[in-house]
TrEMBL record:
The keyword Transmembrane helix applies. Its main location: membrane. The keyword Transmembrane applies. Pfam families: Ferric_reduct. It is a multi-pass membrane protein. Keywords: 2Fe-2S, FAD, Flavoprotein, Iron, Iron-sulfur, Membrane, Metal-binding, Oxidoreductase, Transmembrane, Transmembrane helix. Its cofactor is FAD. It is found in: Membrane. This is Putative ferric reductase.
């Protein structure tokens, strides 16, 4: 039984080992259950397709075969489309079990797969209804759009989804500001809302039995309800209840700013060090767009601090905020927190402004002197030097700044590590394979660090990453 206590656990007299084991078991159960439910849903709709003669229809001619394939791809696409909405609905069990980065990756895979299936559904249904005759495709398309209930809406929804998918391709994302990409991405909800009604109104696979009707309407209502509750109502209630306002703005460096916030009953906000908020500052034009900002100090129940680098419109306006500015927020979100911890000893690694949640973790997590090592990668001057010095003196945190430009394209630690970065990592942290690693920074950099940690023998489930990619 460990004597190491977290602040919340210490108040309740619960050993950290017990709490961590309970959190880990619950998160594993949620991940396993979520995967099983995903596959169960796909198997269920496939079973209904088979029961309706879907396999038999494949062998009776090109027209019926194409229509049958169209029905199946439509079922799979609709199911995955609603799963995709649930993944991004901010459901607490999913957020806690997977974390934002992992959910984003799953969301991306499910989204592209659902879109590909939707395209296959459209093409094969039109081909089947056209009697597998290319000459009949234009007339059949026009007939479907103008005479079948909901199909015209689904065309509009498909256009919205095409726009979202195109702007989600990496090359396209690089050409967009985060704010523009985020606004365009919201059209996914409109696309889902317009694409599904024709299936619920006229699709025989949705209407042939009470069980099917309940399944599809239940899944649709669950997706819409989750978004409404967790992405609209709860953030609004929390914003009104806690009344966050800006108290001060501090310039940490030439392009990095910290914003201090205060409000009511912040001790009742379910926040942990290392998490982030989606924030809207009510200071004029642009207030409707939220931006994610990490907590750069451990929550103390009285105030919050976020820190960001001026990279886009949202972060660039922070230095111009005035004390008293009101704040709307969503969250806190993120698994880069004590919830992901399963080991006593820690390695905390941050690059650039990615040091913000790492600095928060260094303050908020419990550890014995010497059990936590913090590596800060920076091109120029490191951030929070004096604050980390205090943690080193008072908590026994071991810190190492890694300034300078990268020595090669694969370098992650810079010139101080020398040509053999794996050897350098093992010299700095000899027992790295036995530690939990909390990692934050740009996506390309975190990918490189993860590869290096794998070479050092760190199990993948010991590494907890939050990247700044979108």
């Amino acid at each position: 039984m460990t004597a190491l206590l977290s602040r919340s656990a210490a108040d309740e007299g619960v050993p950290t080992r017990v709490r961590l084991d309970a959190d880990a078991a619950l998160d594993r159960a949620v991940r396993t259950t979520g995967g099983l439910l995903l596959w169960a849903g796909l198997l269920l709709v496939t079973y209904w397709w088979v029961a309706d003669g879907g396999v038999t229809d494949l062998t009776t001619g090109w027209a019926t075969g194409l229509t049958s394939v169209g029905r199946l791809t439509g079922l799979w696409s609709a199911d995955l489309l609603l799963v995709q909405v649930l993944l991004m609905s901010r459901l607490p069990p999913l957020e806690n079990a997977f974390g934002r980065d992992r959910l984003n990756r799953i969301h991306r895979v499910v989204g592209f797969l659902s879109f590909d299936l939707m395209c296959a559904h459209v093409l094969t249904i039109i081909g089947g209804y056209a009697g597998a005759s290319w000459s009949q495709v234009p007339a059949t398309t026009w007939e479907l759009v103008t005479t079948y209930a909901g199909v015209l809406l689904s065309v509009a929804g498909t256009v919205c989804l095409v726009m979202v998918v195109v702007t989600s391709v990496k090359k396209a994302r690089r050409r967009l500001r985060y704010e523009s990409w985020h606004l365009l991405h919201l059209y996914a909800y409109l696309g889902v809302g317009l694409a599904l009604p024709h299936q619920l109104w006229t699709g025989q696979e949705f209407l042939l039995s009470t069980g099917r009707t309940l399944y599809w309407w239940g899944l649709w209502i669950a997706a819409a309800g989750a978004v409404l509750v967790w992405r609209v109502l709860l953030p609004l209630v929390r914003s009104l209840r806690h009344g966050l306002r800006v108290t001060s703005v501090v310039q940490e460096s030439s392009d990095v700013v910290s914003v201090y916030l205060t409000g009511r009953h912040l001790d009742r906000l379910p926040q942990r060090a290392g998490q982030f908020l989606n924030v809207r500052f009510l200071d004029g034009p642009g207030w409707t767009r939220s931006n994610p900002f990490s907590l750069s100090a451990a929550p103390d129940g009285r105030s919050l601090r976020i820190t960001a680098k001026a990279l886009g419109d949202g972060s660039g306006r922070l230095s111009r905020l005035r004390p008293g500015t009101r704040v709307l927020f969503e969250g806190p979100y993120g698994r880069l927190s004590s919830r992901a911890r399963t080991r006593h000893r820690l390695l905390l690694v941050g690059a650039g402004v990615g040091i913000t949640p790492i600095r928060s973790l260094a303050e908020g997590l419990d550890y014995a002197p010497g059990d936590a090592v913090l590596l800060q990668r920076c091109t120029d001057e490191p951030l929070f030097v004096s604050e980390l010095d205090v943690l080193a003196r008072e908590r026994g945190l071991q810190t190492l700044a890694l300034p300078g430009r990268r020595t090669s394209a694969r370098s992650v630690f810079g010139p101080l590590a020398g040509p053999d970065e794996l050897a350098a990592l093992r010299q700095w942290v000899p027992d790295v394979a036995e530690r939990n690693v909390f990692l934050c920074g740009p996506t390309a950099w975190t990918d490189g660090v993860e590869r290096l940690l794998a070479e050092a023998g760190v199990p993948a489930d010991h590494v907890h990453t939050e990247s700044f990619g979108w």
